[in-house]
Amino acid sequence: MQSIFQTGGLNTEIIGPVDPNDPSKGVEVRLYPTLLTTTSVTVYADLTGPLAGIIDLGGVTFVETPTGKQVIRMRYQDQDNDGIRERFIRGVIKPNGSDAPIFEAKVDLYLDAPDLEPTGGLSHNVHSTPVTLDLRGRVKFLTDGRTLIEQRNQNTPAVSVSVGGGAVTFDLLLPVEQTLLQFLSNPIKDLIAPPEES
User: Quick one: how far is CA 188 from the chain centroid?
Assistant: First the structure.
């Protein structure tokens, strides 16, 4: 699967040190679940395989199908393993020696491809498809007061796709570090109210 890129806003809350006695464990951050739209990827279909008896394009044996925009919905966490998702997403900012600090988070998502139209008008199941990403990346503090968080997946989740009501099934793999999410905060000057005129 091709790379997925997205830059967006993210609401966060700084909780404080994970362990006040051990700065190396970092600072705990809570992420507010949000919705993101990402870039399109292209799915390549071999019509000489399982699709041969389902789709007839007059001798065409290979087609490319773009997914269109994809929608990622971050889910609340179930930290107690009781099936109830009501907690904000936990992340940690950790020191990284002399380099920029590192942000780590494990995020459960729903993936939707509302504009995906498989060849031959077949249906698909990429609606609220669960995906879990182990994210890690640098935290940059920009000169205007904004914070830029870059996150790349450290795992290789498989998205199970069914086309034509199960006539064809396959897994889309998200290779390590090929999903890039960038979150940019508002400038500090936008968060400070201007002085009242006398």
Answer: 26
Give the whole-angstrom CA distance, residue 17 versus residue 141. Answer: 19
Mean pLDDT in consecutive groups of 10 residues from the start of the chain, 198 residues: 51 86 91 82 65 50 71 87 87 88 93 80 85 92 81 90 78 83 69 55
Measured CA to CA, the distance from residue 115 to residue 81 in angstroms comes to 34
Which residues neighbour 48 within 8 Å (Cβ) at sequence distance 6 or greater?
A: 61
Q: Which two tokens stand for residue 174?
A: 């998200």
Domain ranges of the chain: 4-188
| Planar angle of CA 180, 181, 187, nearest 5 degrees | 135
Integer Cα distance of 52 and 187 in angstroms: 55
